[in-house]
Task: structure prediction
Amino acid sequence: MPNPARIFISSAYDRKLVPFRSDLKRELEEAGHSPLLFEDNFYPWQTDFMKTCLQKVMESDIFILLLNDNVGTYWAEDKCTPTYQEFRTAIKEGKYVIAFLDSDIKQIYEEHIRKDLDRRYKKYIEEKHRNPDYTIDIVYQVINEDLGRSQREKIESIHPFIWAFIYDVQAARIWTEELVLAQAPKAYKKIKGYLSDRLGEGIKLVPMKEDIHDNAIAAQDFTVYQDYTLNLLSYLHMGTITDWENFLETAMEPLMGDYIYQRPATMLAEEIGKFEKCNALTVYKKAEDKIRLCGYAGATSPSFEYDLTNDDSYVVSALTRDTNVIGYSEDKNVLYYAITTKDLYSP
Result:
Protein backbone atom coordinates (compact mmCIF):
# COMPACT_ATOMS: atom_id res chain seq x y z
CA MET A 1 0.00 0.00 0.00
CA PRO A 2 1.32 3.51 -0.81
CA ASN A 3 2.15 5.84 2.05
CA PRO A 4 0.90 9.29 0.93
CA ALA A 5 2.65 12.43 2.14
CA ARG A 6 0.68 14.15 4.91
CA ILE A 7 0.46 17.86 4.13
CA PHE A 8 -0.77 20.29 6.80
CA ILE A 9 -2.48 23.39 5.37
CA SER A 10 -2.31 26.26 7.87
CA SER A 11 -3.94 29.70 7.80
CA ALA A 12 -6.16 31.96 9.86
CA TYR A 13 -9.84 31.22 9.34
CA ASP A 14 -10.87 33.68 6.62
CA ARG A 15 -13.86 33.30 4.33
CA LYS A 16 -11.72 34.58 1.45
CA LEU A 17 -9.36 31.62 1.91
CA VAL A 18 -12.03 28.89 2.27
CA PRO A 19 -12.38 28.20 -1.49
CA PHE A 20 -8.60 28.28 -1.94
CA ARG A 21 -8.02 25.83 0.92
CA SER A 22 -10.76 23.51 -0.34
CA ASP A 23 -9.49 23.51 -3.94
CA LEU A 24 -5.89 23.07 -2.78
CA LYS A 25 -6.96 20.05 -0.75
CA ARG A 26 -8.60 18.52 -3.81
CA GLU A 27 -5.56 19.21 -5.99
CA LEU A 28 -3.26 17.53 -3.47
CA GLU A 29 -5.55 14.53 -3.05
CA GLU A 30 -5.70 14.05 -6.82
CA ALA A 31 -1.88 14.06 -6.81
CA GLY A 32 -1.93 11.17 -4.30
CA HIS A 33 -1.17 13.15 -1.15
CA SER A 34 -3.06 13.33 2.16
CA PRO A 35 -3.81 16.99 3.00
CA LEU A 36 -4.90 17.96 6.51
CA LEU A 37 -7.48 20.73 7.05
CA PHE A 38 -8.87 21.57 10.47
CA GLU A 39 -12.39 21.89 9.03
CA ASP A 40 -12.25 18.42 7.46
CA ASN A 41 -10.10 15.91 9.31
CA PHE A 42 -8.96 17.15 12.70
CA TYR A 43 -11.44 15.11 14.73
CA PRO A 44 -11.62 13.85 17.40
CA TRP A 45 -11.01 17.25 18.99
CA GLN A 46 -9.38 17.41 22.42
CA THR A 47 -10.63 19.78 25.13
CA ASP A 48 -7.68 22.00 24.29
CA PHE A 49 -8.22 22.33 20.53
CA MET A 50 -4.66 23.57 19.99
CA LYS A 51 -3.31 20.22 21.18
CA THR A 52 -5.20 18.58 18.33
CA CYS A 53 -3.86 21.08 15.80
CA LEU A 54 -0.26 20.80 16.97
CA GLN A 55 -0.47 17.01 17.07
CA LYS A 56 -1.57 17.08 13.42
CA VAL A 57 1.39 19.33 12.59
CA MET A 58 3.77 16.85 14.22
CA GLU A 59 2.17 13.99 12.31
CA SER A 60 2.56 15.78 8.97
CA ASP A 61 5.44 15.61 6.51
CA ILE A 62 4.97 19.00 4.83
CA PHE A 63 3.59 22.29 6.16
CA ILE A 64 1.91 24.82 3.85
CA LEU A 65 1.45 28.28 5.36
CA LEU A 66 -1.00 30.84 3.94
CA LEU A 67 -0.74 34.42 5.21
CA ASN A 68 -2.99 37.33 4.27
CA ASP A 69 -4.39 40.42 6.03
CA ASN A 70 -6.50 38.40 8.48
CA VAL A 71 -4.70 37.73 11.76
CA GLY A 72 -7.42 35.36 12.99
CA THR A 73 -7.63 34.72 16.72
CA TYR A 74 -5.01 36.78 18.55
CA TRP A 75 -4.13 35.92 22.14
CA ALA A 76 -2.93 39.26 23.50
CA GLU A 77 -1.55 37.78 26.71
CA ASP A 78 0.62 35.28 24.82
CA LYS A 79 1.23 37.58 21.84
CA CYS A 80 0.45 34.70 19.54
CA THR A 81 -2.14 33.20 17.18
CA PRO A 82 -3.08 29.56 16.49
CA THR A 83 -1.55 29.75 13.01
CA TYR A 84 1.71 31.14 14.41
CA GLN A 85 1.84 28.37 17.02
CA GLU A 86 1.37 25.80 14.26
CA PHE A 87 4.18 27.42 12.26
CA ARG A 88 6.59 27.42 15.20
CA THR A 89 5.81 23.74 15.85
CA ALA A 90 6.50 22.92 12.20
CA ILE A 91 9.89 24.67 12.43
CA LYS A 92 10.74 22.97 15.72
CA GLU A 93 9.83 19.56 14.31
CA GLY A 94 11.92 20.16 11.18
CA LYS A 95 9.01 20.02 8.73
CA TYR A 96 9.40 21.09 5.11
CA VAL A 97 7.63 24.48 4.97
CA ILE A 98 6.09 26.13 1.92
CA ALA A 99 4.89 29.68 2.66
CA PHE A 100 2.55 31.92 0.65
CA LEU A 101 2.05 35.61 1.45
CA ASP A 102 -0.75 37.74 0.05
CA SER A 103 0.79 39.94 -2.65
CA ASP A 104 -0.77 43.20 -1.38
CA ILE A 105 0.35 42.54 2.19
CA LYS A 106 3.83 41.62 1.01
CA GLN A 107 4.12 44.88 -0.91
CA ILE A 108 3.07 46.96 2.12
CA TYR A 109 5.50 45.03 4.34
CA GLU A 110 8.43 45.53 1.95
CA GLU A 111 7.71 49.24 1.43
CA HIS A 112 6.88 50.38 4.98
CA ILE A 113 7.86 47.80 7.61
CA ARG A 114 10.70 45.46 6.75
CA LYS A 115 13.67 47.84 6.70
CA ASP A 116 12.96 49.55 10.05
CA LEU A 117 11.89 46.31 11.69
CA ASP A 118 15.09 44.57 10.62
CA ARG A 119 17.21 47.51 11.83
CA ARG A 120 15.54 47.62 15.25
CA TYR A 121 15.62 43.84 15.63
CA LYS A 122 19.36 43.69 14.96
CA LYS A 123 19.98 46.66 17.27
CA TYR A 124 18.13 44.84 20.06
CA ILE A 125 20.40 41.81 19.63
CA GLU A 126 23.53 44.00 19.67
CA GLU A 127 22.44 45.69 22.91
CA LYS A 128 20.86 42.73 24.74
CA HIS A 129 22.93 39.90 23.24
CA ARG A 130 19.81 37.83 22.65
CA ASN A 131 16.72 37.77 20.45
CA PRO A 132 13.70 39.74 21.67
CA ASP A 133 11.04 37.66 23.41
CA TYR A 134 8.37 38.85 20.99
CA THR A 135 8.90 40.34 17.55
CA ILE A 136 5.61 42.22 17.85
CA ASP A 137 7.16 44.41 20.58
CA ILE A 138 9.66 45.64 17.99
CA VAL A 139 6.85 46.07 15.45
CA TYR A 140 5.04 48.46 17.81
CA GLN A 141 8.23 50.53 18.11
CA VAL A 142 8.45 50.74 14.33
CA ILE A 143 4.81 51.80 13.97
CA ASN A 144 4.91 54.36 16.78
CA GLU A 145 8.39 55.81 16.27
CA ASP A 146 9.47 55.23 12.66
CA LEU A 147 6.38 55.56 10.47
CA GLY A 148 4.83 58.81 9.35
CA ARG A 149 1.13 59.58 9.72
CA SER A 150 0.29 58.61 6.14
CA GLN A 151 2.11 55.30 6.57
CA ARG A 152 0.27 54.51 9.81
CA GLU A 153 -3.04 55.30 8.11
CA LYS A 154 -2.17 52.88 5.30
CA ILE A 155 -1.70 49.99 7.73
CA GLU A 156 -4.18 50.88 10.50
CA SER A 157 -6.67 48.22 9.37
CA ILE A 158 -4.01 45.49 9.54
CA HIS A 159 -3.18 43.87 12.87
CA PRO A 160 0.49 44.53 13.81
CA PHE A 161 1.04 40.84 14.51
CA ILE A 162 0.89 40.19 10.77
CA TRP A 163 4.18 42.07 10.35
CA ALA A 164 5.79 40.19 13.21
CA PHE A 165 4.63 36.89 11.73
CA ILE A 166 6.09 37.72 8.32
CA TYR A 167 9.41 38.75 9.84
CA ASP A 168 9.69 35.53 11.86
CA VAL A 169 8.88 33.42 8.80
CA GLN A 170 11.64 35.08 6.80
CA ALA A 171 14.02 34.95 9.77
CA ALA A 172 13.55 31.17 9.71
CA ARG A 173 14.92 31.32 6.14
CA ILE A 174 11.57 30.37 4.65
CA TRP A 175 11.03 31.91 1.21
CA THR A 176 7.56 33.45 0.85
CA GLU A 177 5.83 33.05 -2.48
CA GLU A 178 3.23 35.64 -3.50
CA LEU A 179 -0.40 34.59 -3.12
CA VAL A 180 -2.97 36.07 -5.50
CA LEU A 181 -6.33 34.40 -4.88
CA ALA A 182 -7.57 35.41 -8.33
CA GLN A 183 -4.69 33.38 -9.76
CA ALA A 184 -5.11 30.32 -7.53
CA PRO A 185 -4.16 27.76 -10.22
CA LYS A 186 -0.69 29.33 -10.38
CA ALA A 187 -0.30 28.75 -6.64
CA TYR A 188 -1.40 25.11 -6.96
CA LYS A 189 1.11 24.61 -9.77
CA LYS A 190 3.87 26.22 -7.72
CA ILE A 191 3.12 23.99 -4.71
CA LYS A 192 3.27 20.91 -6.92
CA GLY A 193 6.59 22.22 -8.22
CA TYR A 194 7.95 22.41 -4.67
CA LEU A 195 6.77 18.87 -4.00
CA SER A 196 8.30 17.60 -7.23
CA ASP A 197 11.59 19.28 -6.36
CA ARG A 198 11.55 17.68 -2.93
CA LEU A 199 10.79 14.30 -4.50
CA GLY A 200 13.72 14.75 -6.88
CA GLU A 201 16.05 15.46 -3.96
CA GLY A 202 14.71 12.60 -1.89
CA ILE A 203 14.78 9.99 -4.65
CA LYS A 204 18.57 10.37 -4.87
CA LEU A 205 18.83 9.30 -1.24
CA VAL A 206 16.76 6.12 -1.58
CA PRO A 207 19.75 3.91 -2.57
CA MET A 208 21.60 5.20 0.50
CA LYS A 209 18.67 4.63 2.87
CA GLU A 210 20.28 1.83 4.87
CA ASP A 211 23.65 3.63 5.12
CA ILE A 212 21.94 6.84 6.26
CA HIS A 213 19.98 4.94 8.89
CA ASP A 214 23.09 3.12 10.15
CA ASN A 215 25.13 6.34 10.22
CA ALA A 216 22.42 8.17 12.14
CA ILE A 217 22.38 5.44 14.80
CA ALA A 218 26.18 5.37 14.90
CA ALA A 219 26.33 9.16 15.32
CA GLN A 220 23.85 9.00 18.16
CA ASP A 221 25.77 6.17 19.86
CA PHE A 222 29.04 8.06 19.40
CA THR A 223 27.61 11.17 21.07
CA VAL A 224 26.51 9.12 24.07
CA TYR A 225 29.88 7.35 24.20
CA GLN A 226 31.76 10.66 23.91
CA ASP A 227 29.83 12.30 26.76
CA TYR A 228 30.22 9.18 28.90
CA THR A 229 33.96 8.98 28.29
CA LEU A 230 34.57 12.66 28.97
CA ASN A 231 32.65 12.43 32.25
CA LEU A 232 34.78 9.48 33.36
CA LEU A 233 38.01 11.20 32.32
CA SER A 234 37.14 14.18 34.50
CA TYR A 235 37.91 11.97 37.54
CA LEU A 236 41.29 10.93 36.19
CA HIS A 237 44.45 12.95 36.94
CA MET A 238 47.98 11.91 36.00
CA GLY A 239 46.87 8.31 35.55
CA THR A 240 45.14 8.20 38.95
CA ILE A 241 41.43 8.01 39.79
CA THR A 242 40.89 10.98 42.12
CA ASP A 243 37.33 10.24 43.22
CA TRP A 244 36.33 6.59 43.11
CA GLU A 245 32.77 7.08 44.34
CA ASN A 246 31.80 9.64 41.70
CA PHE A 247 33.78 7.79 39.05
CA LEU A 248 31.85 4.59 39.70
CA GLU A 249 28.52 6.43 40.03
CA THR A 250 29.14 7.89 36.58
CA ALA A 251 30.19 4.48 35.23
CA MET A 252 26.88 2.95 36.38
CA GLU A 253 24.63 5.47 34.63
CA PRO A 254 24.40 3.77 31.19
CA LEU A 255 24.15 0.24 32.62
CA MET A 256 20.36 0.14 32.37
CA GLY A 257 19.74 -3.59 32.12
CA ASP A 258 18.37 -5.64 29.23
CA TYR A 259 16.49 -8.77 28.21
CA ILE A 260 17.93 -12.28 28.06
CA TYR A 261 17.18 -14.31 24.94
CA GLN A 262 17.38 -17.94 23.96
CA ARG A 263 18.80 -18.23 20.43
CA PRO A 264 19.77 -14.52 20.41
CA ALA A 265 20.19 -12.66 17.10
CA THR A 266 18.21 -15.30 15.19
CA MET A 267 14.68 -15.39 13.78
CA LEU A 268 13.78 -17.79 16.61
CA ALA A 269 15.04 -15.50 19.39
CA GLU A 270 12.83 -15.89 22.45
CA GLU A 271 12.83 -13.73 25.56
CA ILE A 272 13.40 -15.89 28.63
CA GLY A 273 14.28 -13.30 31.27
CA LYS A 274 15.72 -9.92 32.00
CA PHE A 275 18.11 -8.17 34.36
CA GLU A 276 17.59 -4.75 35.91
CA LYS A 277 19.94 -1.79 35.83
CA CYS A 278 23.26 -2.02 37.65
CA ASN A 279 22.91 -0.96 41.29
CA ALA A 280 26.51 -1.26 42.53
CA LEU A 281 30.12 -1.26 41.37
CA THR A 282 33.27 -2.17 43.27
CA VAL A 283 36.95 -2.08 42.31
CA TYR A 284 39.62 -4.25 43.93
CA LYS A 285 43.40 -4.34 43.53
CA LYS A 286 45.82 -7.19 44.16
CA ALA A 287 48.19 -6.59 47.05
CA GLU A 288 50.56 -9.49 47.79
CA ASP A 289 48.39 -12.49 48.77
CA LYS A 290 45.17 -10.48 49.06
CA ILE A 291 42.95 -8.25 47.00
CA ARG A 292 41.92 -4.98 48.63
CA LEU A 293 39.08 -2.58 47.98
CA CYS A 294 39.92 0.59 46.00
CA GLY A 295 36.46 2.10 45.83
CA TYR A 296 32.76 1.37 45.52
CA ALA A 297 29.43 3.02 44.72
CA GLY A 298 25.77 2.13 44.86
CA ALA A 299 23.76 -0.24 47.02
CA THR A 300 26.57 -2.37 48.41
CA SER A 301 28.57 -2.93 51.59
CA PRO A 302 31.66 -4.63 50.14
CA SER A 303 34.31 -6.56 52.00
CA PHE A 304 37.49 -4.55 52.49
CA GLU A 305 39.69 -7.44 51.36
CA TYR A 306 39.70 -11.07 50.23
CA ASP A 307 42.31 -13.81 50.56
CA LEU A 308 43.34 -15.25 47.22
CA THR A 309 42.30 -18.65 48.54
CA ASN A 310 38.65 -17.58 48.95
CA ASP A 311 36.77 -19.78 46.49
CA ASP A 312 33.42 -18.11 47.22
CA SER A 313 34.42 -14.73 45.81
CA TYR A 314 33.69 -13.97 42.16
CA VAL A 315 36.38 -11.30 42.30
CA VAL A 316 38.99 -13.81 43.44
CA SER A 317 37.85 -16.31 40.79
CA ALA A 318 38.21 -13.72 38.04
CA LEU A 319 41.67 -12.73 39.22
CA THR A 320 43.08 -16.23 39.73
CA ARG A 321 41.64 -17.51 36.44
CA ASP A 322 42.57 -14.30 34.62
CA THR A 323 39.17 -14.19 32.95
CA ASN A 324 35.81 -12.50 33.34
CA VAL A 325 33.33 -14.31 35.59
CA ILE A 326 29.51 -14.21 35.67
CA GLY A 327 27.72 -15.48 38.76
CA TYR A 328 24.23 -15.44 40.23
CA SER A 329 23.09 -15.51 43.85
CA GLU A 330 19.61 -17.02 44.26
CA ASP A 331 19.42 -15.86 47.87
CA LYS A 332 20.06 -12.22 46.95
CA ASN A 333 18.59 -12.43 43.45
CA VAL A 334 21.68 -10.62 42.21
CA LEU A 335 23.71 -11.11 39.05
CA TYR A 336 27.47 -10.57 39.45
CA TYR A 337 29.90 -9.75 36.66
CA ALA A 338 33.59 -9.66 37.59
CA ILE A 339 35.96 -8.15 35.02
CA THR A 340 39.76 -8.33 35.11
CA THR A 341 41.97 -5.51 33.87
CA LYS A 342 45.61 -4.73 33.46
CA ASP A 343 47.54 -2.98 36.21
CA LEU A 344 45.55 -0.11 37.67
CA TYR A 345 47.28 2.75 39.40
CA SER A 346 45.28 4.24 42.25
CA PRO A 347 46.06 6.09 45.47
User: Anything to note?
Assistant: The mean pLDDT is 86.
